Amino acid sequence: MTSIPSKNMWIRRQQCPCGDWKCYVTYEGDAETSITSQMVKAESSQSESMVAPYVGMVFKTDEDAFEYYGNFARKNGFSIRKERSRLSPQLGIYKRDFVCYRSGFAPVRKKPSGEHHRDRKSVRCGCDAKMYLSKEVIDGVSQWFVVQFSNVHNHELLEDDQVRLLPAYRKIHEADQERILLLSKAGFPIHRIVKVLELEKGIQGGQLPFLERDVRNFVQNRKKVVQENDALLNEKRENDTMELLEACKATKEADQDFVYDFTVDQNDKVENIAWSYGDAVNSYAIFGDVIYFDTTYRSITYDMLFGAWIGIDNNGRPIFFGCVLLLDETLRSFAWALQMLIRFMKGRCPQTILTDLDPGLRDAIRSELPTAKHVTSIWSILPKVSSWFSLQLGSQYSEFKSEFDALYHLESTEDFELRWNQMVSIFGLGSDKHIALLYSLRTSWALSYVRGYFLARIATAAYSKSVDAFLKGIFITQSCLRRFFEQVGVAANLQNQRHPEVQYLHMKTCLPVEEHARQILTPFAFNALQHELIASMQYAAHAASEMANGSYLVRHFRKIDGESLVIWIPEDEQIHCSCKEFESSGILCRHALRVFIDKNYFQLPEKYFLSRWRRESSLMFYDDHSVHDNDDEWFQEFQSLTETLFTESTITKERSDYIRRELTKELTRLLNEVRDMPESDGAPMEFTLSPTG
């Protein structure tokens, strides 16, 4: 009985250069080292003057000798094989004969009458090239000596491009074996598997270290093994998914706020599982306006896709909302996952959902989240652009990449359409299916189309790196599904309960609006606003005479970027900028701030401090079992004092150090006094507090 891998290997998936959505280049581990697009390792390089074996040459082992002779043979246009060996009770194997692959003659085979056998011409021609070894033990150390050597051949030696095709050198390395089996399982014919491998390695046709018939023979020989492995994997998957369900059930019994659900097929076997935690649901009520649905990890052992719903908190950090394990990547499975998200989050739909590039997921969002804006992460597109076009365009790729980046950042959809058509024409990509796919999805990734969609700075490189670090923390250990479930819970709890680092918010402009914002916003949001406020000092606002009153054209004093139109409605203290930064991030842009400053505002209107970016969003919230009304007045007072203390202490390092020192002393004193009090006075206190990150 064959065995299956004992570890549960989770891999990051990236679309294969062949362009098929069923086929993925896989990545393993923290270093994200490709296991299927590795180039076959070359044999040990030998100089042109490689020393030929000679009588008296010494090797530590017979395998070292065989490897050396094999390298010599390949360098000189032939291959070798192991012939005879001799054994003794004292020394074990003490003689080895290595010969040319054409040594000896093929034995004569008798043909049974009435049966047709294909006559195969033998390559053996009695060649006498050889290397014989003998083992000696000197001072307790075994050594192998060359006792006979001949390099005289009675046949023609092969050139470099021919010798690599000898059976001895046509090896399918382990990484290629895994890839071949994966593609074969997906239904790829042999000739297409060979083509995919050539594309992944970036080599010309016919340059693989093995032939198409070698791939065919390998697949045929492994079919039985693959079937046995599949049966074992299915059995393991069924057992482990049942253990996972038991873990979910036990967690639900211990924590009523924990939620989970699953689906089964017609044979009552588990297909998909989703779960979330009470704290995550509470956090979603505050930070669920925008989410990222990450689907970059897949389990090799269980053949299941892992999807995580992740948001961004008011400190700019990823916050975990829940996750799902999917048996496949069909529209049906993705739709079910989104249904679970909305159900777990009590019917609240996000304003915007960010995903990887996946047509199936796009269709599921259209179906299940019709009111949500869908944005495709540019960080999932750029690696695909490289794999799709770098080989195809060759030396032109750098120019193409620059033009693609410029297209991504364009402000006008009209400009995008015009320059896209020009780019396609210049690089001759009119019939390319990948260009067609990117164009069909342009409304979800090009900034000219998604500008104004609320993203809360979730589409930045910094956030993407934070998500990668969080997910790698989940997959750092390989284990069964139950242990994986526990690891997800630990990682999610650590991520959501982590307190932000204390930052010293220094004034940089001395403007009243800056001082006011510092008291309201978290350090992350304040730093973003402060950056725009500093930049606004280099802009000037001019009334747009040709437009209605309240319109301003704001431009940089060096005109390094285009001008922006700012519309000011004084009656409602509303301001709108054509750059749509506030609509996208919830932070006012430099153009709008320039107008507020020119109008002598000392404080920005409250409506421009979104609740998701305020300091109080970080504090503790009551859960559904909390008491309210007059019973929690003491806590409201405590919350207000704590907030004020935290705000005042972040102004200078001296204040922060003082608060840390004195507060620790005072809290320790209060704690000791409370512990000295009686544990019960007959009056029950029935309230709980639930932190939400």
Descriptive notes:
This protein has 693 residues and is an alpha+beta fold. The protein folds into four domains: 57-105 and 122-164, no CATH class; 171-254, no CATH class; 268-492, no CATH class; 512-617, no CATH class. The protein is 41% helix and 18% strand. It is built from 21 helices and 21 strands. A hairpin with a 3-residue loop joins strand 5 (80-88) and strand 6. It starts with 9 loop residues before the first strand and ends with a strand. The model is unreliable at 1-8, 17-48, 619-631 and 683-693 (pLDDT under 50).
Question: How would you briefly describe this protein structure?
Answer:
One of its GO terms (biological process) is regulation of DNA-templated transcription. The protein is α+β, with helices and mostly antiparallel strands.
* Largest sheet, strands/sense/barrel: 10 strands, mixed
Residue share in β-strands: 15-25%
Number of domains: 4
What's the tally of helices? 21
Q: Report the C-alpha radius of gyration, rounded.
A: 34 Å
Low-confidence runs (pLDDT<50, min 5 residues)?
1-8, 17-48, 619-631, 683-693
Please, what is the average pLDDT? 82
Terminal-residue CA separation: 50 Å
Number of β-strand runs: 21
Helix content: 40-55%
Could you say which structural class the secondary elements and strand pairing correspond to? alpha+beta
Molecular shape = elongated
Keywords: Metal-binding, Nucleus, Zinc, Zinc-finger
Subcellular location: Nucleus
Function: Putative transcription activator involved in regulating light control of development.
GO cellular component, one term: nucleus
